[in-house]
Design goal:
CATH class: Mainly Beta
Strand order of the largest sheet: 4-5-3-8-7
CATH superfamily: SET domain
CATH topology: Beta-clip-like
Number of domains: 1
Radius of gyration: 15 Å
Largest sheet: 5 strands, antiparallel
Helix content: under 10%
Number of helices: 1
Strand content: 25-35%
Distance between the termini: 26 Å
Oligomer: single chain
């Protein structure tokens, strides 16, 4: 399930991103995405490809990984973000929910560290703290 007014559009400095053409209220589920779960052996192979940038660690032990279907791999990172994601290991899905009201035309962001307000640097930020696409 993806809200029908979400679109993927190019961004000025982050490649592509997820945008909304309508306002979204805090607490709204914007996407419920199934995932394909892969084992540690697959993760080693994926880490050698461009897909490394789009997979999520999976499971309580974080030894597996998953590829989310839908728009989930295209959400850009922000800290704090305007959305959060929750992994459901039993249902093999990721849910994205708005953590604040979002205006029409805004880009939707998730925090790659997991918690929407986590301020720790993420793996792709360089020494100056500038983000890469």
């Amino acid at each position: 399930m993806i809200l029908p007014f979400l679109t993927i559009t190019t961004t000025p400095n982050m490649g592509r991103g997820v945008f909304t053409s309508e306002p979204i209220a805090k607490g709204t589920v914007v996407e419920l995405s199934p995932v394909i779960v892969m084992g540690p052996e697959d993760r080693l192979l994926l880490d050698k490809t461009l897909l490394h940038d789009y997979i999520f660690e999976w499971g309580e032990d974080r030894k597996r990984c998953c590829m989310a279907m839908g728009y989930v791999p295209v959400y850009n990172h922000a800290s704090p973000s305007n959305c959060e994601y929750e992994m459901d290991y039993d249902e093999d899905s990721i849910t994205v929910t708005a953590v604040r009201d979002i205006e029409a035309g805004e880009e939707l962001f998730i925090n790659y560290n997991g918690d929407w307000d986590d301020t720790r640097p993420v793996w792709f930020e360089d020494l100056a703290g500038k983000e890469h696409s």
